[in-house]
Every structure is written in C-alpha cells, then in structure tokens.
Amino acid sequence: MSDADKCIRIAMWSGPRNISTAMMRAFENRADCAVSDEPFYAAYLYETGLAHPMRGKVIASQPNDWRNVVRKIAGAAPEGRTVWYQKHMAHHMLPHYGLHWLDDFRNCFLIRDPAAVVASYAAKREEVTAADLGYHRQIEIFEREADRLGHAPPVLDAKDVLMDPQAALSALCARVGIAFDAAMLSWPAGPRESDGVWAAHWYATVEASTGFAPYTEKDIVVPDALKAVYEACLDPYDRMARHRLST
Questions:
Q1: What is the CATH number of the domain that holds 25?
Q2: Which residue of 7, 37, 172, 240 could cross-link 77, Cys pair, CB 3.0 to 4.6 Å?
Q3: Contact 66/40 with Cβ under 8 angstroms?
Q4: Is residue 84 a part of any domain in this protein?
Q5: Coil vs helix vs strand at 106
C-alpha cells in the first residue's frame, strides 16, 4: 500500500463566511493531520476572471489548472500525515472540473444559515450573488456523494458546531473514521503557514481566536437588495440541513 493510500483525506465542502477556517484550525491542531486551504481558489480566479481581493497574489500562489490541483491533493499527504483535511469552497469547482477524485475522499459538508452568510459576505464585498455563496454547487456535490454512498454524507451546521464543539466534532470524526482528539477544541492564536495568501484580507477574526467562539443568537435582517440572493440559497441549504449530524 502506498503512502497516498494510507491517508484518510477529508474534503470539507463549504461556502464563504462560514466557520470553515476555524474548522481547519481545529483539524490542524491534531498531531496526525495536515491541512490545505482552498486549493482550487487560484484556478477558479484564473478561469473566471473575477475581481476578488488580492486576485494576482492568489493566482500566483497556487496551480492555475484544476488537473494539477487534483494531482497534488490526491497524492501523498504532507509530512507523511495519516489524516489530510482539505478546506474547499464549493463554488470554486467550476462545471467542467472533473469530480472523479472525490470518490477517494471522505466528503463532508459545512453549512450555515443563508441569512447570516449574506450579511457577513456583504460586509466584505459590495456585490453579492447566489453563485458567490456556493449553495447550489454544494448541493450538487452533496447529491453526487449521496448517490455514490447510498446515504447522505456528513453535514455539519455551523450553529451546531458553535453550540457544542466537542459533540459536533466527535460526531464528525466518528463518521469519517478517525478518533476524536480534544486538541481540536483549542489552538494558538495567530496566522499559519498553511493559510492561503488571502488570509490578510479575510482571516483577522480567526487569527485572533484560540477556539470556536460561543454561539450567540443574532437578529439578522437581510437588506431588501439582497433578499433575492437569500431566497435563492434557502432551498439547497434546507435540503442539506435535513441531514445534519445530531449532537
């Protein structure tokens, strides 16, 4: 058996303005785990021509061809680690990207109430579309994986994680076939070498964190200008939320 075959690869499919980077921190704090931060981001920007913050630096930091990304993330894990957690943004997977490689991964799905995502994303970018938030591509990947497995893959709702991180992470670890490690519940503050170069724009909150922030209920009002975006994301969110792991 090759080193690549020995590794458990976890692909966590999320959208932006979720707790995806905090989840990556949790896994990186395990001694047995390597992490990768949005490996398809550069290819996505290169092919779409979208004007994201730090576009040039992102494109220069990663392979620009999706096939080269797949070859890298499906190879041997960094430093021979036995677990490889990969943080993926669902909308980075453009329609022509092959998905065959997903069959060798433990595919998991991180979701968040669209109202909270819309409000958070709008605070960082002036224009927001449903495509930017990734719910529709996420449900496509979810349904592909459910068809392959014959049952729903693991789904975590950000609210559930924040309300009880140990219960949520324990349930996730059980589903992907690894032991829960209490080291996942806290981590040192600061940046990581594993962070994407875009961290300077997006990661201020997580860099200041030492664990999952306690959940607080917020009265979120979606602006009229963004209600169509919010409503477009509700159906795929609800379809995945029906399968979220109980904690």
A1: 3.40.50.300
A2: 7
A3: yes
A4: yes
A5: strand
Q: Which domain holds residue 132?
A: 3-241
What backbone torsions phi and psi does residue 89 show, to the nearest 5 degrees? -95, 120
- Residue ranges of alpha helices (H) inside 76-185 are 114-122, 130-133, 135-149, 158-163, 165-176
Helix pair angle (227-241, 114-122), 10° resolution = 140
Integer-rounded Cα Rg, in Å, for the chain is 17
Q: List C-alpha distances in Å: 42 to 60, 173, 197.
A: 7, 29, 11
Q: What is the pLDDT of residue 16?
A: 87
Return the H-helix or E-strand segment holding 152. Answer: none
65: pLDDT strictly greater than 90: yes
The tally of domains found in the chain comes to: 1
Residue 184 is assigned to a structural domain of this protein: yes
Let me know: does 87 contact 33? Beta carbons within 8 Å.
Answer: no
Query: How far is Cα 17 from Cα 62, in angstroms, rounded to an integer?
Result: 21
105 secondary structure, DSSP code: S
Query: Is the per-residue pLDDT at 182 higher than 50?
Result: yes
Residue 235 lies in a domain: yes
Domain assignment present for residue 78? The answer is: yes
Which H or E run contains 195? Answer: none
Strand-pair partners of 88: 13
Q: What is the pLDDT of residue 5?
A: 62
* Whole-angstrom distance, CA of residue 104 vs CA of residue 71: 13
